[in-house]
């Protein structure tokens, strides 16, 4: 990672209250190099400029740690992680968290396993769909923090993600500037799935773009009917 990129990452993380040590910036450098290398043979990201990767992927992911500070050894689930965002940056910054990643494409998980191996980190990688895993006893209502970034509209996303959130746990939905319409459309889903909106945190990244992290907390239980099969979620959102 070029020195100016390293400085950008350090300064941006510090502004979020995240202190990165040399070993962690080295891990981000390894992640960056692997991302750009693998991206030549499979579609992981449209962003290939190292500085933009730093801002729009790494720093963007770290905003989660400012929005909700996971407790020590927290169980964190990243749904539809894709190229590993925000899950892998969170694990680099907070090695103590117990990270689980769900993604529907095995090739992406193969990439993420190499990133974990090369950065000497560990996480549980699950190949499949969130709505299927959300019905499994060892995963349902088991996580302190659940994250999702650029996965689906919020009214669908709630049913994919909220079943994993434990009592008093949090779901962090990472959205762009036009989140209010999505939030309005998702109100019924939020209530049915036993959660409530407890905050919205806005961030402006160094490129001038804005991110809004919608923070939901589980406040009550919900029906075993949810999550429904993916086709039903898509055809008839809550």
How would you characterize this protein structure?
- It is a single chain.
- A 7-stranded mixed beta sheet has the order 3-2-1-4-5-7-6, with helices on both faces.
- The chain starts with a helix and ends with a helix.
- 42% of the residues lie in helices and 22% in strands.
- The chain is built from 10 helices and 7 strands.
- The chain is globular, with a radius of gyration of 17 Å.
- The longest helix is centred in the first third of the chain and has 18 residues, at 50-67.
- The mean pLDDT is 94.
- Helix 1 (3-15) packs parallel to helix 3, helix 2 packs antiparallel against helix 5 and helix 3 (50-67) crosses helix 4.
- Helix 7 links the parallel strand 4 (143-149) and strand 5 (165-175).
- By secondary structure, the chain is of the alpha/beta class.
- The chain has helices at 3-15, 22-38, 50-67, 87-93, 106-119, 130-133, 154-161, 179-185, 187-192, 230-235, and strands at residues 75-79, 98-103, 124-127, 143-149, 165-175, 195-204, 210-218.
Secondary structure layout:
Layout (H helix, E strand, L loop, with lengths): L2 H13 L6 H17 L11 H18 L7 E5 L7 H7 L4 E6 L2 H14 L4 E4 L2 H4 L9 E7 L4 H8 L3 E11 L3 H7 L1 H6 L2 E10 L5 E9 L11 H6 L3
Parallel strand pairs: 1-2, 1-4, 2-3, 4-5
Antiparallel strand pairs: 5-7, 6-7
Helix pairs in contact: 1-3, 2-5, 3-4
Describe the structure in brief.
Helices cover 42% and strands 22% of the residues. The protein has helices at 3-15, 22-38, 50-67, 87-93, 106-119, 130-133, 154-161, 179-185, 187-192, 230-235; strands spanning 75-79, 98-103, 124-127, 143-149, 165-175, 195-204, 210-218.
């Amino acid at each position: 990672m070029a020195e100016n990129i390293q400085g950008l990452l350090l300064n941006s993380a510090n502004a979020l209250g995240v202190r990165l040590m040399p070993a962690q910036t080295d891990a981000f450098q390894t992640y960056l190099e692997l991302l750009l290398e693998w991206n030549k043979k499979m579609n992981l990201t449209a962003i290939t400029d190292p500085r933009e990767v730093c801002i729009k992927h790494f720093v963007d992911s770290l905003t989660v740690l400012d929005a909700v500070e996971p407790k020590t050894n927290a169980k964190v689930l990243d749904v539809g992680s894709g190229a590993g965002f925000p899950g892998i940056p969170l694990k680099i910054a907070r090695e103590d968290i117990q990270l689980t990643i769900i993604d529907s494409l095995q090739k992406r998980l193969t990439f993420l396993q190499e990133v974990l191996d090369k950065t000497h980190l560990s996480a549980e990688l699950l190949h499949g769909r969130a709505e299927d895993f959300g019905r499994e006893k060892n995963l349902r209502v088991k996580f302190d923090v659940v994250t999702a970034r650029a996965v689906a509209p919020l009214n669908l996303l709630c049913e994919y993600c909220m079943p994993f959130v434990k009592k008093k746990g949090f779901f962090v939905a990472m959205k762009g500037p036009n989140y209010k319409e999505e939030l309005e459309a998702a109100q019924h889903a939020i209530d049915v799935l036993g959660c409530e909106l407890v905050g919205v945190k806005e961030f402006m990244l160094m490129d001038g773009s804005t991110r809004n992290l919608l923070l939901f907390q589980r406040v009550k239980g919900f029906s075993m009917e949810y999550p429904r099969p993916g086709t039903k979620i898509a055809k008839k959102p809550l």
